[in-house]
Amino acid sequence: DDLNTLTFNVIPAMDPVPMVDDKATLYQNIKCTAEASDFISCHDLTRSLCELQYTCGSGNRPVPCECVLKYGYPEPSQKTRGTTQQTAFIQTCADTCSKAGGSTEKCGRWKTEANKLGAQEGGSASNSKNGDMFNEVV
Question: Residue 1 above 60 pLDDT?
Answer without folding.
Answer: yes
